[in-house]
């Protein structure tokens, strides 16, 4: 049994930000930190005070986290980036909004005295003797302190204050994991209301000391406990006044906290088996649970439910059967071919999730080089005459401005080249497409052809495939390459327009160049010859794509299963130190690949992929979760010379100075499947719609009374899947009730702390 927490984060936009550049504007981006650990960096939006990001993330984090903070920064090319302000949401704030926090939040000033982190190890005791009682405070060590100096460390010391007296520890140079083992005593008067304050500081020779955090204790509670020892989280100093709210602008956020208690696998087996049985029966099933789940699922949560179901069946090897069932249900209620798969049904949402889970690597191989070329060229491209700005494209020849006709012709030629390259890459990619994706498209193609036969519907099966492949997968990736991990940053305004026009052209090809698609934007006419040629190429590609037999599908899957798929791959720089001084250090660029089995590297890359540090850390943490040899503590520094650089201990085999804890990880489409978590999420959704499902059961019972009587008369008594489902839900409900209370573990000695 495990307690798991996750955050759904959407950073929407900012407004009324202050100008940080001499141009009267800013170049804002956001950094998201969980308990002072940076986990997310958005794209920079250039030259604006009202940036729009629209970036979404799913973050898994330990249940004991305290707060998530959003920092709005201004990027500077030549100097350190400026901090504009921040929004901080505590765990308690998020827990108080079960449906999530959504709306505008004022940015507040960032005070260095509030930017604290780490814990301090203390032993407190009341010493009784022949004279007055004494309060003894032993300052043992600290860990994960904030680095305040340019060398990436601090020079920490501790100041202990009680009843007007102040005592200080020695200074530990260049360490965020200091050990003091020093003891201080104070006279203690029984009944005194004075609090004990333990503060950590960074010593500076020239400037003022930097505040690292504090812990405040209620001495009255210590009288009853007599002695307490443990690690205490350092708290910020919030006594300073702030700038007026709203003067730094606002940030629009959507943040939702999910706390899940995941039971052992055996508890979910009845639910998984029941759902799998319904999928195997298909549309011939007596209860048809899947259609009822779709009918009772609201539009707002349909995408989440589709993703959870898809991942569950993917883990059971039934993704193709599940999608085939949804295809049949959609076709059964569709009368017009031109409306097929155009709504946000469970079939459409599930297929979107399926392509992202199973086809993201394939998408990168096909689309990546074309996207890179568009970003590198940075050409001005425009086909709409009403939007052409000649001044943006410079001159043609010697000091002669380009005419509008020249701009349109050059733009059309640029788009023809990009569209042709994309269609050629797609045509060559049949064998690179995952077998399960090809088999699923084959089922879709055959089902649609059965439902809409005849020459008048010749293109309908092809359009059904392209409605997912082009309109819901390739085109969105072209318009927002960063969200599909094709680029590290969003495109600027000029490149975004090129990508949008290219995506429109791909959509026209995917619609098989129908008159309706041509009539929408007549100024796309210069691309029509390439679009018509692309339609022929795409139909030929789809014909080959769906031409896969069961034996070939199994062979391809078997060959793929022998290779551990990469979780992350890309370049990293290795820092090597040969001695003291900057000239004795060197960096070597190597290309790493992390799979579920190993971390390997080579001197040259096999494929190009941009990875940020937090993505690498997230991937490594995911692969280490189930490691049985995981250490309880570790040294975050290195053993250099005769001591550890982090805690200055001289014994190389000394226990680590920092604890090994569950860290924050970012959810990616290529994450290993977590069957128990997906089953728990489906269970939670079914609980929310249980009342509607019971109402559906009553309606079905009333409508099928005669049929049920006939079956009973003939001796047949089919089991009611809905009744089975309600029993499974009841069993899971009881299992959760009997499990230990699913609340976040309290901080050590939390009762001793005063609210500051």
UniProtKB/TrEMBL annotation:
Protein's name according to its UniProt entry: RAS p21 protein activator 4B
Compositional bias segments (type: Polar residues): 739-756
Molecular function GO labels: GTPase activator activity; zinc ion binding
Every Ras-GAP domain range: 301-511
Record domain C2: where: 1-105, 116-232
Region described as Disordered: spans on this chain: 734-756
InterPro entries recorded: C2_dom, C2_domain_sf, PH-like_dom_sf, Ras_GTPase, RasGAP_CS, RasGAP_dom, Rho_GTPase_activation_prot, Znf_Btk_motif
Zinc-finger in keyword set: yes
Keywords from the named record: GTPase activation, Metal-binding, Repeat, Zinc, Zinc-finger
A Pfam family it matches: BTK
GO biological process, one term: intracellular signal transduction
SUPFAM superfamilies named in the record: C2 domain (Calcium/lipid-binding domain, CaLB) (SSF49562), GTPase activation domain, GAP (SSF48350)
């Amino acid at each position: 049994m495990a307690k798991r927490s996750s955050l759904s984060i959407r950073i929407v936009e900012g407004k009324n930000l202050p100008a940080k550049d001499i141009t009267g504007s800013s170049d804002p981006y956001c950094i998201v930190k969980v308990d002072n650990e940076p986990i997310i960096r958005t794209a920079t939006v250039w030259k604006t005070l009202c940036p729009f990001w629209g970036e979404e993330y799913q973050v898994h984090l330990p249940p004991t986290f305290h707060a998530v903070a959003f920092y709005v920064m201004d990027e500077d090319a030549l100097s350190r980036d400026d901090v504009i302000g921040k929004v901080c949401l505590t765990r308690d704030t998020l827990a108080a909004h079960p449906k999530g926090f959504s709306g505008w939040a004022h940015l507040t000033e960032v005070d260095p005295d509030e930017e604290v982190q780490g814990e301090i190890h203390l032993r407190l005791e009341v010493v009784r003797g022949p004279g007055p009682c004494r309060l003894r405070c032993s300052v043992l060590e600290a860990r994960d302190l904030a680095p305040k100096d340019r060398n990436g460390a601090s020079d920490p010391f501790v100041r202990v204050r009680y009843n007007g007296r102040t005592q200080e520890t020695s200074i530990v140079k260049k360490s965020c994991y200091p050990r003091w083992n020093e003891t201080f005593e104070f006279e203690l008067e029984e009944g005194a209301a004075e609090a004990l304050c333990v503060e950590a500081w960074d010593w500076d020779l020239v400037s003022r000391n930097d505040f690292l955090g504090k812990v405040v204790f209620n001495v009255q509670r210590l009288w009853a406990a007599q002695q307490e020892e443990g690690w205490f989280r350092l708290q910020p100093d919030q006594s300073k006044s702030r700038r007026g709210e709203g003067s730094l602008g606002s940030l629009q956020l959507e943040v939702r906290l999910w706390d899940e208690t995941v039971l052992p696998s055996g508890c979910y087996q009845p639910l998984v088996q029941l759902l799998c049985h319904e999928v195997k029966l298909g549309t011939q099933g007596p209860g048809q649970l899947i259609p009822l789940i779709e009918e009772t699922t609201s539009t707002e949560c349909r995408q989440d439910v589709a993703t959870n179901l898809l991942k569950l069946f993917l883990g059971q090897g039934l993704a193709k059967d599940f999608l085939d069932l949804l295809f049949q249900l959609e076709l059964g209620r569709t009368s017009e071919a031109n409306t097929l798969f155009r709504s946000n049904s469970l079939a459409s949402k599930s297929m979107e999730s399926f392509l992202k889970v199973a086809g993201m690597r394939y998408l990168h191989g096909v689309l990546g080089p074309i996207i890179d070329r568009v970003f590198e060229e940075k050409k001005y491209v425009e086909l709409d005459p009403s939007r052409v700005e000649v001044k943006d494209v410079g001159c043609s020849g010697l000091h002669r401005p380009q005419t509008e006709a020249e701009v349109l012709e050059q733009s059309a030629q640029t788009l023809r080249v990009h569209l042709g390259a994309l269609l050629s890459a797609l045509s060559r990619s049949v064998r690179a497409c995952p077998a399960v994706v090809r088999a699923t498209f084959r089922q879709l193609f055959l089902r649609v052809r059965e439902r809409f036969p005849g020459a008048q519907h010749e293109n309908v099966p092809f359009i059904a495939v392209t409605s997912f492949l082009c309109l819901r997968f390739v085109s969105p990736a072209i318009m927002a390459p960063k969200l599909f991990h094709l680029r590290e940053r969003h495109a600027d305004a000029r490149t975004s327009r090129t990508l949008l026009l290219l995506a429109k052209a791909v959509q026209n090809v995917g619609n098989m160049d129908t008159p309706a698609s041509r009539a929408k934007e007549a100024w796309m006419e210069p691309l029509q010859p390439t679009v018509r040629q692309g339609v022929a190429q795409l139909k030929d590609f789809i014909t080959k794509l769906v031409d896969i037999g069961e034996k070939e599908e199994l062979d391809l899957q078997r060959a793929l299963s022998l290779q551990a798929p990469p979780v992350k791959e890309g370049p990293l720089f290795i820092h090597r130190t040969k001695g003291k001084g900057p000239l004795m250090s060197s960096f070597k660029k190597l290309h790493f690949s992390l799979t579920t089995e190993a971390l390997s590297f080579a001197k040259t890359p096999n494929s190009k992929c941009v990875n940020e540090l937090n993505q690498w850390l997230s991937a490594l943490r995911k692969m280490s979760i189930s490691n049985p040899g995981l250490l309880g503590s570790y040294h975050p520094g290195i053993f250099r010379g005769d001591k550890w650089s982090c805690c200055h201990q001289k014994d190389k085999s000394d226990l680590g100075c920092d604890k090994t804890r569950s860290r924050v990880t970012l959810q990616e489409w290529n994450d290993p499947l977590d069957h128990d978590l997906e089953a728990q999420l489906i269970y939670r959704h079914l609980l929310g719609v249980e009342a509607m499902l019971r109402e559906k059961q009553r309606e079905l019972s009333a409508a099928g009374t005669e049929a049920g009587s006939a079956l009973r008369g003939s001796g047949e008594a089919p089991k009611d899947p809905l009744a089975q489902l309600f029993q499974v839900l009841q069993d899971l409900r009881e299992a959760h009730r009997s499990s230990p209370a699913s609340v976040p573990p309290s901080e050590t000695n939390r009762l001793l702390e005063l609210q500051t």
